[in-house]
Amino acid sequence: MQRSLSWVALAVLSLVLFGCGEGSSGGDGSQPAVVITGRGGSYVLQATNLKNVGAMDITIGYNNSTLANPVVTQEGLLSGAIMVTNITVQGIVRVGIINATGISGSGALLSINLDLVGDKPGQLTSLSVAAYDINRNTIALRTAILE
After folding, report:
1. Which tens digit of pLDDT belongs to each residue from 17-31?
2. CB of 105 closer than 8 Å to CB of 77
3. What CATH number does residue 63 fall under?
4. Cα(7)–Cα(133) distance, rounded to whole angstroms?
C-alpha cells in the first residue's frame, strides 16, 4: 500500500510541476511550483524553478480537530531570507518571507510539524502562495497538497 501511494504522489507531483500536455501553461517544466508533502503531522513545503523571488505570502490550512500546535522551521532554500510566522488562528499557518537578493532554485522552503489530536489522521485543508519577484511583480505559481 505504501509503495502505491508513493507512485500516486510522484505522478501528481509530475503533473503539477511539468503540466498535463498540450495547451497547459508551463508544460516545459519552467513554471515555478510550490507543493507541500507529508502526513501524520510532519510536512515539508518544497519549491521548484523559483527565480528572483523577493517575497512570498503563504497560507496553509489544517483541520484543527485533528492537528494542533504548529511549529514552522525555515529550510535550506530560504537561507538568508527573513521569515515571519503567524499561528495565532487555529487551523491556519501564515508565513511571510522576504529576501532582497531573490530566492532562486529548487528545494525545501520550510517544514511544519503539528501535534496529532485524537486517533484520526491529521489533514491539511488548503495551500495558498502569493509570490513576487525582487521588482515587486507577481509571479504565477502552481500549488498542490500531496499527502
Report:
1. 334 333 333 445 588
2. yes
3. 2.60.40.680
4. 33
Note down the domain range covering 133. Answer: 2-19+32-146
Cell of 31: 513554471
Separation CA 106–CA 129 (nearest Å) = 16
What is the phi/psi pair of residue 126, to 5°?
-160, 155
Residue 27 φ then ψ, to 5°? -65, -15
pTM for the structure as a whole:
0.78
Q: Please, are residues 8 and 37 in contact by the beta-carbon 8 Å criterion?
A: no
Q: How far apart are CA 113 and CA 68, in angstroms?
A: 9
What SS3 class is residue 113?
Answer: strand
- Tally of domains in the chain: 1
Question: Does any domain span residue 25?
Answer: no
Non-local (6+) Cβ contacts of 54 within 8 A are 98, 99, 100, 102, 103, 132, 133, 134, 135, 136
